[in-house]
Structure formats: C-alpha cells, structure tokens
Structure to design on (464 residues):
C-alpha cells in the first residue's frame, strides 16, 4: 500500500476499532489502576491511571483490541493464575518461600537478587496488568499486511509477494499471530523501538561490580531511526538515501572525559548476505574503525554488560543459516510495567547499583528461543519472552557456550497511552555469573527536534 494512504487508513481503522464494543473485554483494568493509585498515594501511579483513562487512550486501545481479538485482560481471564498473585501483593525475602508458584511467574533474576547482598532487592510489588499497543498509523499498516502472501526463504529473509524484502520496504507488524519462531522473531523486529524516531538525551549507563559499586558511569546520547516503512513521522515510507536498509542506530559518549567523543553508527541491512554498515570513531586515535558483524558482540564500553547486538534487548541480525528460531511456548511472566513516561518502576541508589524495590505486572508472552548453529556466537541460546500485545521483549535470558545462563535483560518502556508510541525509561543487563550489572537510565527526548540523517554518518556524528 502506498505510504501516503497509511494515515488516512489509520483514521478509518482507529474509528472502526473504537466502536467495536462487541469485542470490548473487561473494562475494569483502568478501575483497578485507579483504585491501586488511590491506595498507594504515589504520584506516578496516579499519573499513569489518569493517562490510560483519557478518551484518546481508550479509543486507540480499543482499536488494537478489535484487530487482535484479545487484550491482556481477556488472556488473563482464561488463565489459571494463582489467586494471591494480584495487584497489591508485596513479595519479600521473608514470604517468597510461601509462594509455590514463584518459580513459574517470577523471572530468575528477580528471585536471585531478592534478599541477596548482590543488587540488594528487598521488595517486589505487583501492580495491575495494563494494556499496551502501538500507534494508529502502525495499526493501519499492520491491517494492510497480508501474512498469507509473505514468505520466509532459506536464509530467513522475510519476502513480500513481489519478492522484495519486507523489512526494507513495508510498514506494520507482519505476524500478529505467529505460528513459528521466525514469524515471532519478525513480529518483535518489526516493533523496532516502538516509534519511527527515538532519542535519549541523555542515556546514563552504570557499570556495577558484585559489591554494588559503580566502576564506571557513562553518559551520552542515542538516536535510532526507522529507515523503511515509516508511518508516524516525516519522511514517510522509506528514507531514499538508505535503500535496502531497515533501521539505524547511533551512539555518542559525552562522559567520562577519557571516552568523550567515542561514537558508533550501525545501519542494519535487511539482506542476510549484505553486511551492516558498522563504524566506530575512536577519539584518542582520531580514527574511524569499520567493524564487522562479529563486533556486535563487543561491549559498548569497558565494564558494560551491554553489547551492540544486545541493545533494545535484541538487535542481532536475523539469519537462518546461522541461527535456529523456535516458538518454544507461551504463558505469563512478571515484567516491569511500561509506565516509564510517568514513573520509574525501579527504586535504586544514586549510582544505580543497588535496587531496593521494583514494580512488576503479569504479562502474556510467547517464548522465542534462538539457538546458534555456528558454535561461534557469544551465546549458545537466547530466550526471549515476547509480549502478546506489544510484540516486544518483556524479559530475556542469554546462555553461554556451555549452556549455562550468563546474562539477562529486563526493562521498562516509556510508553505514551494517548499515542501508542514508546521509548525507554530503564534497562538492566545482569551477568549472573560474574555478578555484574549494567543499569541504564534513559530520558526520552520526545520532541526529537535535532533528528536528521547526518546523525547516522560517522564522519558527521564525530563532531556532534
């Protein structure tokens, strides 16, 4: 469908979905949040409850629900969830032993650090389950996709009916009811970062030791741009000077002084056989280094557990010749709520290395397992718990070459209920063997006033 029609169609889809009262499942999730906020008295809870009750939030949520045929509440209503696992429950080191269901619903990282000197978590609080969705233009584009006309070839590339690459030409989520691992992988890849353009100003990354002290604190900016299938912000459609590319990310370090000016750009090619454009400027050498795909396994900076392939939870290139993609199951898991636009679900020390409390909500997920076939990638297996509403990772586990759990990822999105766009508020990347944590704090720059293509040219970014 031509790009210029997406916005017009989005209005039709939006109105039609909003009027689909027959598919309206339980509507009291907003009431649950209002009651919860009134009980806690916390400003962030109140602000979230007010935002989801806005008319534009209700209409957009209803439109996505009508298209999917379900929401988080309808899935929970059908599930056999323990009665005590409900909003307001507080889980502590003292009472977790009385909860036989804990291993099933609480991710291993949170169970490990609860009451542990490492990280220092003392309290998990369960908040009401929310409903998440993307923007009206993305919904319109998704409705225009015909999954039956798509094909995944032997390299794992997603093809349109005319054999063009979906990820470098087409908007929308290709598979909202994935039947296998590659379809699920493409759903989360198409989600991208939840918006056409993303900007963190700043992003702060704390490299924390096993003793909960900050070994390094890095400050910088990150930009990300969708290069194909843009529906929300000009330029719509595809960015002409990036033919064949699906997205680009750029990072510029501002502190500490010894790394100031370090910059990196990665432009993702949709074709398996075409390498990404991947360059890093090293200010101490005044040189630009061209990297290869294997360099994506390198940390962003010394002491960080976050690498280039792992940012946004998963950014390694889809390649069925190197990886197996398996839809390994589905169910529910406790994850950080996407309330970062209004408050941070984490309560942590100023240096980011001690997390004393966290809010978690119950999320419906598919489980994607990605297994390395080459025996050369840093992880033998990666397990992603992908949200059934947002098509994004709720939680991720990464296993070393021996098959032992090495790292995890958990985050909170900066989600705006009125628009359906999302960026980020926090992320934790934890090395469970070395007991090292990278805590990332992001401040979303929603105006994105300085977003332009020059940011993804290393020779121009280096002078930022």
């Amino acid at each position: 469908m031509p790009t210029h029609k997406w916005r017009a169609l989005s209005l039709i889809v939006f109105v039609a979905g909003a009027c689909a009262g027959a598919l309206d499942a339980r509507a009291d999730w907003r009431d649950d949040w209002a009651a919860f906020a009134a009980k806690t008295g916390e400003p962030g809870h109140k602000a979230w409850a007010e935002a989801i009750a806005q008319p534009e939030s209700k209409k957009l949520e209803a439109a996505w629900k009508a298209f999917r045929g379900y929401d988080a509440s309808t899935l929970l209503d059908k599930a056999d969830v323990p009665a005590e696992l409900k909003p307001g429950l507080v889980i502590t080191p003292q009472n977790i032993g009385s909860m036989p269901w804990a291993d099933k619903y609480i991710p291993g990282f949170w169970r490990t650090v609860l009451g542990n000197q490492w990280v220092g978590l003392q309290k998990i609080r369960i908040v009401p389950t929310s409903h998440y969705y993307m923007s009206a233009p993305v919904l319109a584009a998704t409705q225009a996709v015909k999954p039956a006309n798509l094909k995944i070839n032997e390299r794992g590339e997603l093809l349109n009916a005319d054999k063009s690459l979906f990820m470098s030409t087409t908007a929308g989520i290709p598979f909202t009811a994935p039947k296998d691992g590659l379809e699920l992988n493409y759903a989360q890849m198409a989600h991208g970062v939840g918006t056409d353009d993303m900007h963190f100003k700043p992003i702060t990354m704390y490299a924390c030791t096993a003793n909960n002290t900050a070994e390094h604190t890095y400050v910088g900016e990150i930009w990300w741009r969708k290069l194909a299938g843009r529906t929300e912000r000009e330029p719509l459609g595809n960015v002409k000077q990036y033919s064949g590319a699906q997205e680009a990310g750029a990072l510029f370090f501002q502190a500490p002084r010894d790394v100031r000016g370090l910059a990196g750009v990665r432009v993702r090619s949709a074709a398996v056989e075409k390498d990404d454009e991947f360059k890093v400027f090293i200010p101490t050498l005044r040189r630009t280094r061209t990297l290869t795909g294997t360099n994506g396994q390198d940390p962003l900076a010394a002491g960080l557990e976050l690498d280039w392939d792992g940012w946004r939870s998963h950014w390694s290139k889809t390649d069925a010749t190197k990886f197996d993609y398996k839809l390994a199951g589905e169910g529910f898991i406790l994850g950080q709520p996407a309330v970062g636009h209004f408050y941070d679900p984490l309560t942590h020390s100023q240096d980011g290395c001690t997390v004393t409390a966290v809010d978690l909500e119950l999320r419906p997920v598919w489980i994607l397992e990605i297994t390395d076939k080459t025996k050369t990638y840093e992880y033998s297996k990666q397990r992603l718990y992908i949200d059934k509403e947002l098509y994004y990772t709720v939680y991720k586990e990464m296993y070393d070459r021996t098959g032992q759990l090495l790292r995890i990822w958990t985050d909170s999105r900066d989600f705006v209920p009125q628009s359906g766009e999302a960026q980020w508020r926090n992320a934790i990347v934890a090395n469970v063997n070395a007991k090292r944590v990278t805590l990332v704090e992001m401040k979303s720059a929603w105006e994105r006033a300085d977003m332009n293509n020059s940011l993804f040219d290393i020779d121009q970014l280096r002078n930022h």
Confidence is low (pLDDT under 50) at residues 1-26. The first strand starts at residue 90 and ends at 91. The CA atoms of residues 200 and 444 lie 5 Å apart.
